[in-house]
Specification:
596 residues; Rossmann fold; 5-stranded mixed sheet; 18 helices; 36% helix
């Protein structure tokens, strides 16, 4: 093919004159090699690895593409490399010698221009300071250096409409709806978590279908993309563990919205929770056997489903662990006002119509609030934002978290406090039209709903220990226990003996049965000590088991009391008495305004 057109720009001086780039493409001694493209520069990641040649071109429909061709690929299969570029709309000659010359041209690039390549969205540190990378743009001062996103080819980030349209539809419809306000606040928290080094975590709205759970998820997703599952920013739980790891990377420093936990693989859900909230992917080996760099991410998860996360874990035949229960916390989706997830029926006085309006708005006006929020954070200054958020978290905990609360409760409370702080900053920046204090009110309501659903302030492990022992007594009653006075017909698969009635009822359990049945999977001593501290087990001095006369001889047994069947476990006694701490005064709007 003969060369036509006029030269475009100057080629790098290290490239032979036999190559020429014109408006019609790249030529070698008159032979056409490819459609025209621009070399943006030599790229590498923020750590100085992954050197590449960064290209930009337009496909036949006029859409612009940016792609980094790694130096490593230049030493691989030529056809595969050219095929990858061709499927992105860059036409390339198919003759082997022409393709080889095209790849040689890429290998000859030695420009002084530099490009920072980023394989995940979110915050990135450059010499000029922190910037926030989105697939199509970078927010912040890059110091004149180009930043190119080289992650997934079809990211869910997108925008439509204006910020004002989103504010007057999605955000306005959410006004005074605590669960929707909270989910939007969590989405904002995901975008500033990096600034305060907040840990990963999530919230899970559970309840019957048609209560509006997905509506809240769609509203939160609309900050950075289309509030919808079909091609939007909302994803489903129907992924493998590896698939969700990839999704987490793509949603780094942003909300990861997962709809309908019921379709997740119940056998994997427990490990998936740990992985998503751990922020580090699986270790993988390279071709030479060396350990490749693992994927990392920071995100806040917003999940929905008809069942709780812990119920899904149990469905897979696993026992839920405390770490799983505090990483993604279960919150009832029903607000208890008769309107499903909503606290009121909205201006239309029709909760179903309100839900439809929010969903429709999240699919027509989206992807503008998130970038505007990040721009506001950078304008305030990341250090100033971090200081403000930390102060707000302390104020939230001081006003709402009991001093007697377990460390797990305080850890989760930090996450609710982070959402409250992020929501209040969004109010301050004018991103949402709510009144000051609205995000804090919603976060406090959700914290209390979670605490009530959880069953109190004690550690999950303690609650599970008590429930494990209690459930065996409740399930079998006296059918597995012989009366201590003797039985006409011994119990089938006897667990022990019983005596007394009503509040004086006691169950006597042999050590082996205590270890293998009642405390299976737990430390028998820890369980016994926990029950004894709550009056559910009778000690013998410092020993947890006692000597009792049964069947004409002495047996060493663990003696449970009737308190084991109490609806709620009594609190562990403290050295200062058993009375509950006096309630703290709630955080007022005046207090909040001082923080902001």
């Amino acid at each position: 093919m003969k060369k036509v057109g006029v030269p475009v720009g100057k080629l790098d001086k290290t490239i032979p004159s036999s190559y020429e780039m014109t408006h019609d493409g790249l030529f070698y001694e008159g032979s056409w090699l490819s459609a025209p493209f621009e070399v943006l520069g030599r790229g590498r990641d923020p750590n100085g690895a992954g050197w590449s040649t960064c290209l930009k071109w337009k496909d036949p429909d006029g859409r612009e593409h940016t792609h980094a061709v790694s130096d490593a690929r230049l030493h691989g299969e030529v056809g595969a490399l050219c095929g990858d570029l061709a499927q992105l709309g860059l036409r390339i000659a198919t003759a082997p010698k022409d393709r080889a010359r095209f790849v040689a041209y890429l290998n000859l690039q030695n420009t002084d221009k530099r490009v920072t390549l980023v394989n995940r969205t979110g915050w990135c540190s450059l010499p000029s300071g922190k910037v926030y990378v989105l697939p199509e743009r970078t927010i912040g001062d890059t110091g004149g250096e180009s930043v190119v996103f080289v992650g997934a080819q079809n990211p869910p980030h997108a925008s439509a409409g204006t910020l004002e349209e989103w504010r007057n539809t999605v955000a306005k419809l959410a006004t005074s709806q605590n669960r929707v306000v909270f989910c939007i606040s969590v989405a904002c928290a995901a975008m500033l978590a990096e600034l305060v080094d907040a840990e990963n975590g999530g919230v899970h709205l559970y309840g019957q279908s048609s209560t509006g759970k997905t509506t809240a998820a769609d509203a939160a997703a609309s900050l950075l993309g289309r509030g919808d599952e079909r091609g939007g920013f909302v994803r489903t739980w129907r992924h493998t563990a590896n698939g969700l790891e990839g999704a987490a990377v793509l949603h780094n420093d942003g909300p990861l919205v997962l709809d309908e936990i019921g379709i997740a693989d119940s056998r994997e859900i427990g490990s998936v929770v740990y992985t998503l909230c751990g922020g580090t992917g699986k270790g993988r080996a390279g071709r030479d056997g060396s350990l490749r760099t693992s994927n990392t991410w920071r995100s806040q998860i917003i999940s929905t489903g008809e069942m709780r996360v812990i119920d899904k874990i149990v469905e897979g035949g696993r026992r839920p662990r405390a770490g799983q229960e505090v990483r993604i916390v279960d919150i009832p989706a029903d607000a208890g006002e008769g309107f499903g997830i909503f606290d009121h029926a909205g201006d239309c006085n029709d909760p179903e119509k309100l839900a439809d309006s929010i969903k429709a708005a999240a699919r027509t006006s989206y992807g503008t609030a998130g970038p505007a929020f990040v721009e506001g954070l950078l304008k305030k200054g990341t250090d100033a934002v971090a200081k403000q958020v930390r102060a707000a978290i302390e104020a939230f905990r001081s006003a709402n978290v009991d001093d007697a609360a377990d460390g797990q409760v305080k850890r989760v409370a930090n996450r609710f406090a982070l959402a409250a702080a992020a929501g209040e900053i969004a109010i301050e920046l004018g991103i949402v039209p709510w009144g000051a204090g609205a995000a804090t009110t919603a976060a406090v309501a959700m914290y209390k709903a979670w605490l009530e659903s959880r069953g109190g302030l004690e550690p999950v492990e303690i609650r599970n220990m008590i429930q494990q022992v209690r459930s065996l007594i409740e399930r079998y009653g006296d059918s597995r226990f012989d009366p201590i006075e003797g039985a006409e017909r011994p119990a089938h698969e006897r667990y022990g003996w019983c005596r007394g009635k009503g509040d004086a009822r006691e169950w006597l359990i042999p050590p082996e049965t205590w270890r293998t049945v009642f405390t299976a999977g737990c430390d028998p001593t820890t369980v016994g000590r926990t029950l004894a501290e709550r009056g559910m087990l009778i000690r013998d001095g410092q020993q947890l088991s006692r000597s009792e006369w049964v069947d004409g001889r002495t047996h060493r047994v663990y003696v449970l009391t009737a308190k084991i069947l109490a609806g709620e476990s009594p609190s562990k006694p403290t050295s200062e008495g058993s009375g509950a701490p006096a309630p703290k005064a709630p955080l007022t709007l005046e207090d909040l305004s001082k923080l902001l």
